Amino acid sequence: MAWLITGGAGYIGAHVVRDMLAAGREVVVLDDLSTGRADRLPARVPLIKGSITNRRAVRRALQHESGVTGVMHFAARKQVGESVQRPLHYWGENVGGLQVVLEEMVEAGVDQMVFSSSAAVYGQPDLPDPLDRITETTPCAPINPYGATKLAGEWMVAATAAAHGWKALSLRYFNVAGAGSPDLGDPAALNLIPMVLAALDAGRRPLVFGDDYDTPDGSCVRDYIHVADLSAAHVAAARVVEAAHAGAVVRSPQEKLQQAAARAEQAATRLPGGALAVEVANQVPAAAEAAAALAMGRVPPAVRAVERATGALPWALRPSGAGGVTGQAGEIVAEVASQLGSLAAKVVGVEEAPRLVDHLAVNVGTGRGSSVFEVIEALRASVGDDFAVDIVERRAGDPPALVAAADRALALLGWRAKHGLRDMTDSAWAAWQVRPGR
Ligand SMILES: NC(=O)c1ccc[n+]([C@@H]2O[C@H](COP(=O)([O-])OP(=O)(O)OC[C@H]3O[C@@H](n4cnc5c(N)ncnc54)[C@H](O)[C@@H]3O)[C@@H](O)[C@H]2O)c1
Fold it and tell me: Which of 419, 412, 408, 398 is nearest to 134 (CA)?
């Protein structure tokens, strides 16, 4: 069982290759090395050098001896400006290439997929307040050929998944930044952080495009996501796709806790006395671990999480004296069981969990926006230089703000971003200094 990772020698794909290996998956990479580099791949990873537009190369990759059962599709052209100049090249690579991959997957009976989509599918969303968060149901209206090819790609994946009973996810990345390790930096000066670093390298002042937007400090606001977090989202996506494919009902953390609570309640009625918490803990981790800790007079991590989320401890701790644990354990398990489900909803912060039937699109962002000036400030701290910037005219087609609602990623994938802006600027700077060909 292996995942074929197209574009695995690229900036994002190379992170995912390493994380998938660390998660115990086998991977095979198909990459034409047009922007990727073979030396980003660990030596044991099979690399098939070829284009996704070349049917024979795609077939060879899908038929690799390691037994490919799913495809993560990163291979694409990604420059917005170039897509305006060369739209047919973008449609050919991003849509035509994807069509070849999908056709060959159908042919080979490979029916699990994770597709690299982009926040570019939303274009300039018409939100009541520009700083409102964009959900997956916000209408998609791309404003350049790159975004259009990504939306068409999602549609193609969704229709194929529906027709052939696949399990597939399209991950809509927001602004990807940083590096998981210094050798995996983003070499292309297309996004804000590498653009600033490239300008500093060239002895120029970095440019800020517009400071008169309707945002708190007047500069554009974006949702920056650390590439290591994005990579972790892919590992989570692979797990969800595999589980759905295996027929398991993919449940949200909220549902899992509710289930655990219900099972704990049943167990509590069957088992009397003090040994119960330990016994139940073996069967019902979430509720019973909490009960076991409470029974011993400690505040368990699940309850601490509730406290952090709600600002209050849900249970008053009881004294555990002579016979206390024995007397109380069953009662505590029952109480934990009855409350954990509804409390879990507060911790997890979701009302309804989506189900993966055939295809779903999922935003991958932090849910927090950072302005260009905030990024510049973080970069000044990372680089250790209080560099000046030049403020110039707005760029055409730059919306004031693009911030992801990340609730679906949490509910479906059990994933949320861990890294902040300084992690991104620090790691981008560390990688920039050792980039090849500098
Ligand atoms: N980096 C971002 O900010 C960002 C944001 C949203 C979406 N995405 C999407 O994520 C994916 C990966 O982006 P990235 O930043 O790692 O870019 P990248 O250019 O570093 O990686 C793309 C990889 O695909 C390979 N490739 C390109 N065309 C190919 C073809 N025809 N056949 C085989 N291999 C091919 C390249 O050699 C490279 O290794 C792309 O689909 C991109 O559209 C990226």
Answer: 408
Give the HSE-up count for residue 429: Cα atoms under 13 Å, Cβ half-sphere.
18
| DSSP of 81-103 | HHHHH-HHHHIIIIIIHHHHHHH
pTM: 0.81
Residue type, position 219, single letter = S
By alpha-carbon position, which residue is closest to atom 3 of ligand 1? 176
CA-closest residue to ligand 1 atom 11? 74
Express each pLDDT in 106-163 by its tens digit: 999 999 999 999 999 999 999 999 899 999 999 999 999 999 999 999 999 999 999 9
| Number of other CB atoms surrounding residue 368 within 10 Å | 16
Residue 142 domain flag = yes
Last residue of a domain, one of 304, 324, 348: 348
Probe residue for ligand 1, chosen from 18, 30, 31, 55 as the CB with the greatest number of ligand atoms within 8 Å:
31
Give the three-state DSSP class for 170: strand
CATH code, 50? 3.40.50.720
Cα of 8 to ligand 1 centre, how many Å? 8
Q: Are residues 36 and 58 in the same domain?
A: yes
CA 7 / ligand 1 centre spacing (Å): 6
Is a pLDDT exceeding 50 seen at residue 314? no
Q: How far is the CA of 19 from the centre of ligand 1 (A)?
A: 17
Whether 78 lines ligand 1, by a CB cut-off of 6 Å, is yes
Beta bridge partners of 177: 226
Q: Evaluate whether residue 438 is within a structural domain.
A: no
Q: Is the CB of 41 under 6 A from ligand 1?
A: no
- The residues annotated with a catalytic role in the active site are 146
Last residue of a domain, one of 300, 321, 348: 348
What is the distance between the alpha carbons of residues 403 and 99, in angstroms, rounded to a whole number?
A: 30
Supply the residue whose CA is at minimum distance from atom 8 of ligand 1. Answer: 118
Q: Which domain holds residue 288?
A: 253-348
50 C-alpha to ligand 1 centroid (Å): 14
Residue nearest to atom 18 of ligand 1 (CA): 10
Q: What is the rounded CA–CA span in Å between residue 277 and residue 239?
A: 30
Query: 67-108: per-residue pLDDT in tens?
Result: 999 999 999 999 999 999 999 999 999 999 999 999 999 999
Are 245 and 263 within one domain? no
Asked if residue 130 has its Cβ within 6 Å of ligand 1, the reply is no
Question: What is the rounded distance in angstroms from the CA atom of residue 318 to the CA atom of residue 145?
Answer: 63
Closest alpha carbon to 252 in 43, 10, 36, 414: 414
Q: Are residues 309 and 376 in the same domain?
A: no
Is 52 close to ligand 1, i.e. is its CB under 6 Å away?
A: yes
